[in-house]
C-alpha cells in the first residue's frame, strides 16, 4: 500500500462569481521513505498542491474533487479534529520563509515545547529534552543556548534548521518542504539540502520537495513531477528527467539552468510567461510558449503516455513514439 495516494485532484478558487482551476486532475503516489520533487515555475500549482495534501487550502480556494489518501484514510473527508491529528504528527510542512513560521515574541524553546505538548501528554522537562535533542540532530551548535534565544537572534540558515527540527519533533511519516532554501545563500542552501536528505534517509521519512530549480531537485529527489498551469506534464525518475527530458517545458526548465550556458553568455529562458488562472489557453496550456506547437496542441489536451520509464503529456512525444513503432513494424515485416 502507498503511504500517500493523490488521485484526480482538482482544486478551484471561487473569484468574482467564476470558478478558476488551480489544480486539474493531479495524480501521484508516494511510498514510505521515498523522496519526490514537484517542479515548475511560479504559478504552476506546486504550493497549492503542497497545501492541499494537508488540507490547508483556505477560502476562496477549496478541493473540488478527487482524493488524498494517507494509507487508507482520505484527508479530503476529514474533520478539523482528525486533521489536527495528522498535521505535524503524520505529515509536517516546511514553509518558504522561516521568519513567517517562527513567532518573533516567543523563544525557540517555547515554540518547540508548545508543539510537542500540543500533541502529547508529557512534562515540560521531557519536552525540553526532546527539543534540545532535535536541535542537536539538525547540527545546531550549543542547542541549550539556542533554546532560550528568539528567532531574530539567529541567522537565516540557523532559523531554517530550527524549522526542520520543529517538523521532526513528532517523528512524521512525510515532510513537505516548500522551497525550503529560497531565502538562503548558495552555501547555506547546499547545507540545508544535505541535512534534509540525511534526515529522511536516516529516519525513513518520505519527502515531497517543492522547487522551481531542477538543479536542486537532482541532488535530493528520486522521482520528479513537473507541473505547468495546474497540470502534471511529466513524471519519472529524476535522473531520467534530468538526462533525457521529454516534455518541451521540462527541456526549457533544464536549459534555463545557469550551468547550461558558458560564462559571460546570456542565460537561456523560456519565452513568454505562465498563464494566470483566468487566462489558461485551450488545448495544451504550454502551446503559446512551445516552439513545437501544432494546431492539435492548440485545440486538444494531450493524455499521458509512457516514454521509456517516464510518463509525459505531449503530442510531439506521442507522434515520435508512433513513428518509431511504425518503423519497427516495417523492419519486422
Summarize the structure in short.
With 333 residues, this protein is α/β, with parallel strands linked by helices. It has helices at residues 46-53, 80-86, 98-101, 108-119, 124-137, 143-147, 156-168, 186-203, 214-220, 238-243, 248-255, 295-299, 315-332; strands spanning 4-15, 18-30, 35-39, 61-70, 73-74, 91-94, 174-178, 206-211, 223-228, 231-237, 305-307, 310-312. The protein has a single domain (4-90, 172-261, 271-332), classed as Rossmann fold (3-Layer(aba) Sandwich).
Describe the structure.
This protein is an alpha/beta fold. It has one domain: P-loop containing nucleotide triphosphate hydrolases (Rossmann fold). The protein has 13 helices and twelve strands. It has an eight-stranded mixed beta sheet with strand order 6-7-8-3-9-10-12-11, sandwiched between helices. A hairpin with a 2-residue loop joins strand 9 and strand 10. The longest helix has 18 residues. The radius of gyration is 22 Å and the shape is globular. The relative contact order is 0.13. Its main location: membrane. Keywords: ATP-binding, Cell membrane, Membrane, Nucleotide-binding, Transport. Its EC number is 7.4.2.9. This is ABC-type dipeptide transporter.
Amino acid at each position: 500500500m502507498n503511504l500517500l495516494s493523490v488521485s484526480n485532484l482538482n482544486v478551484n478558487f471561487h473569484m468574482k462569481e467564476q470558478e478558476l482551476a488551480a489544480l486539474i486532475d493531479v495524480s501521484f503516489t508516494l511510498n514510505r521513505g521515498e523522496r519526490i520533487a514537484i517542479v515548475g515555475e511560479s504559478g504552476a500549482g506546486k504550493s497549492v498542491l503542497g497545501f492541499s495534501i494537508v488540507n490547508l487550502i483556505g477560502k476562496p480556494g477549496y478541493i473540488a474533487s478527487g482524493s488524498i489518501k494517507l494509507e487508507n484514510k482520505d484527508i479530503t473527508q476529514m474533520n478539523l479534529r482528525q486533521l489536527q491529528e495528522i498535521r505535524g504528527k503524520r505529515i509536517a510542512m516546511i514553509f518558504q520563509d522561516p521568519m513567517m513560521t517562527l513567532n518573533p515574541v516567543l523563544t525557540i524553546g517555547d515554540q518547540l515545547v508548545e508543539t510537542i505538548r500540543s500533541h502529547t501528554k508529557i512534562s515540560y522537562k521531557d519536552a525540553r529534552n526532546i527539543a534540545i535533542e532535535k536541535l542537536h540532530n539538525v547540527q545546531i551548535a550549543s542547542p541549550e543556548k539556542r533554546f532560550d534565544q528568539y528567532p531574530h537572534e539567529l541567522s537565516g540558515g540557523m532559523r531554517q534548521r530550527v524549522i526542520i527540527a520543529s517538523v521532526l519533533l513528532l517523528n512524521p511519516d512525510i515532510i513537505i518542504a516548500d522551497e525550503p532554501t529560497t531565502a538562503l545563500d548558495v552555501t547555506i542552501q547546499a547545507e540545508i539540502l544535505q541535512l534534509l536528505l540525511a534526515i529522511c534517509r536516516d529516519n525513513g521519512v518520505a519527502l515531497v520537495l517543492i522547487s522551481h530549480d531542477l538543479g536542486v531537485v537532482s541532488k535530493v529527489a528520486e522521482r520528479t513531477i513537473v507541473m505547468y498551469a495546474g497540470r502534471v506534464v511529466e513524471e519519472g525518475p529524476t535522473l531520467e528527467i534530468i538526462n533525457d527530458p521529454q516534455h518541451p517545458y521540462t527541456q526549457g526548465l533544464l536549459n534555463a539552468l545557469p550551468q547550461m550556458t558558458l560564462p559571460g553568455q546570456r542565460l537561456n529562458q523560456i519565452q513568454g510567461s505562465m498563464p494566470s488562472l483566468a487566462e489558461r489557453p485551450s488545448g495544451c496550456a504550454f502551446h503559446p510558449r512551445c516552439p513545437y506547437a501544432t494546431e492539435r496542441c492548440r485545440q486538444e489536451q494531450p493524455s499521458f503516455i509512457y516514454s521509456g520509464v517516464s510518463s509525459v503529456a505531449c503530442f510531439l512525444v506521442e507522434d515520435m513514439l508512433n513513428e518509431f513503432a511504425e518503423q519497427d513494424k516495417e523492419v519486422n515485416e
